[in-house]
């Protein structure tokens, strides 16, 4: 098969003057090279397409691919992750990973939580603050946790996200509203252990290849922040989990995955609540795929699944969906 790759290469954007934080979610050359190699090892030809803009140009010129492997996260707006899959849908080109509706909903953590909760999975009670005066209406139990409603890679999350008083809530919400120009998600704080759970496949064939506990070594607050993610080798310890806690993570992740109609592969982040019960934080239907440093490859590696096998499983699910083989 000729497989096109859509991605946002971080250095392309930095060269155009974007900041490190604006481009935090974007890909390193090593991610694209690793992915390309793994797709070729699975027996396919690859062609780099680039970001949504390059895709548009190529589509209008009539370029075609048998399938596109999409890891583009987009730059601006609530539909930034949906743009590439929506374009590919309208040109009837098959692609790997979830469609535009799932990516749009998953990017808004409050929308995702509504759907996941309705499917029966535990998630912290929450409130969405669109303007500062909204905080008067909040009726949640302290401590709270606040973050921008539609970001990833730990953006807008630091030790100040853990809120212990109404005064702190007001101060941090004001800062996040002005800094990120989007509503703030206020949730009840989950004090327990943190896990990230891998999911591969689609619908009834989806399965959990493994889950890991995330132990942040340096910060007192035990938050998996952008800084911890960047310095993961020193700041974080990852351990594969087994037994009853794994089973709980597995069930919650699969239920959330199916409820949101996520496809082919990704990650679900969870923590335990004050009763020790697994609680959903967020879903990552476009999980990072750097062969060395991204959480999904790390969790697979710690569960004896090499990167090659991870990419082959993702491809297998997409090929089965599109080509019924
Ligand atoms: N309600 C909560 N209670 C306690 N800790 C939380 C809560 N929500 C988030 N966190 C902490 O903040 C971290 C980042 O939150 P979240 O996963 O929502 O952000 P993200 O930036 O989308 O992450 P990713 O890098 O996985 O895309 C979590 O891994 C967890 O450590
Ligand atoms: Mg997360």
Q: Could you characterize the architecture of this molecule?
A:
This protein is of the alpha+beta class. The chain folds into three domains: 2-96, Rossmann fold (3-Layer(aba) Sandwich); 105-122 and 190-323, 2-Layer Sandwich (D-amino Acid Aminotransferase, Chain A, domain 1), CATH 3.30.470.20; 126-188, ATP-grasp fold, A domain (Dna Ligase, domain 1). The chain has helices at residues 10-15, 29-41, 52-61, 83-90, 100-107, 109-118, 166-180, 226-230, 232-235, 243-259, 295-301, 307-323; strands at residues 2-6, 45-50, 67-70, 95-96, 126-129, 144-148, 162-163, 184-188, 194-200, 211-216, 236-240, 265-272, 278-284. The chain has a five-stranded antiparallel beta sheet with strand order 11-10-9-12-13. A four-stranded parallel beta sheet has the order 2-1-3-4, sandwiched between helices. Helix 2 (29-41) packs across helix 12 (307-323). The longest helix is centred in the last third of the chain and has 17 residues, at 243-259. The protein is globular, with a radius of gyration of 19 Å. The chain starts with a strand and ends with a helix. 41% of the residues are buried. The protein binds adenosine-5'-triphosphate and magnesium ion.
Which class of the largest domain in CATH terms?
A: Alpha Beta
CATH architecture of the largest domain: 2-Layer Sandwich
Largest sheet strand order: 11-10-9-12-13
Helices and strands, in N-to-C order?
Answer: EHHEHEHEHHEEEHEEEHHEHEEHH
What's the main sheet like?
5 strands, antiparallel
Helix tally equals: 12
Bound molecules: adenosine-5'-triphosphate, magnesium ion
| Large-scale geometry | globular
Return the structural class.
Answer: alpha+beta
Quote the CATH topology of the largest domain. D-amino Acid Aminotransferase, Chain A, domain 1
Unreliable stretches, pLDDT < 50, 5 or more residues? none
CATH superfamily of the largest domain: ATP-grasp fold, B domain
Average pLDDT over all residues: 96
